[in-house]
Amino acid sequence: MELDILAFGPHPDDVEIGAGGILAHHAAIGYRCGIIDLTAGELASNGTVEERKEEASRAAEILQCSLRECLELPDAQLEVNTQAISRVVKALRCFRPKIVLAPYYWDDRHPDHSTAGELVKRAAYLSGLKRYPVEGTPYRPQKTYYYLLSVERQPDLVVDVSAVYEIKERAIRAHQTQFFHSRQEQALTLVNDPFFLRFVRSRDSYFGSLIGSSWGEGIVSGAAMSVSDLVKSF
Ligand SMILES: [Zn+2]
Predict the structure, then answer these.
(1) 51 CA distance to ligand 1 centroid (A)?
(2) What is the 140 CA–ligand 1 centroid distance (Å)?
(3) Residue 234's pLDDT is what?
């Protein structure tokens, strides 16, 4: 199965937060979208691996993604090493996405988020090398964009996700064990404080305001964007 857009997330809820609207929007207009979680999030304070797997697949269904897989790299010990690069390259050569999404990595507070962005960037390049020793036909995506997690910065592009914002929020809410503090035995975390979801909403509302829309998701290009026809570009 070949994909138009493939989003990589370090943990099974990151893509929903940073790019859930982008995936829902593109799926709704007919593109094949997928999510690959680099880790199963096994070191999270709440939720078992099994629970998180079920939540992740429910969220992918809500976003209308055709694929969700986990590469099972080690949570909180994510590294840019040969083994991790090989797994990402194998996925890229298998699903051949035109566009790749990964976390913006320059200064994210969570080390896995920073590592994930760098890992995917490197793999997207190496995947195109004919002799890079990983199974599959060499393939390099057209472009990698970086979505924002725990980082505040001005995006290079904003995607209007107003029509699908309710879908994004449902996909986030599918991660019950992460974003809700409903059981006494659950640990209090940054993300199950109701403030966190308000923060996501306020950022998406602000990004929307930058393009005159109700809701937007911002992405960083990391390189100059080429435009050949300014009149028809937007
Ligand atoms: Zn994360």
Answers:
(1) 16
(2) 25
(3) 67
Cα-to-centroid distance, 197 and ligand 1 (Å): 14
Return the C-alpha torsion angle 53, 56, 62, 68, nearest 10: -90
Please state at what angle helix 14-28 crosses helix 165-173, rounded to 10 degrees: 140
Q: Which two tokens stand for residue 89?
A: 């390259």
pTM: 0.94
CB 177 within 8 A of CB 47: yes
Q: Which residue has the tokens 């990391």?
A: 222
Q: Which regions in the chain score pLDDT beneath 70?
A: 184, 234
Query: In CATH, what number does 5-220 get?
Result: 3.40.50.10320
Phi-psi region of 19 (alpha: psi -120 to 50; beta: other; left: phi over 0): alpha
Task: Assign 86 to helix, strand or coil.
Answer: helix
Question: How many whole angstroms from 228 Cα to the centroid of ligand 1?
Answer: 36
13 CA to middle of ligand 1, Å? 7
Cα dihedral sign, 89-94-98-99: negative
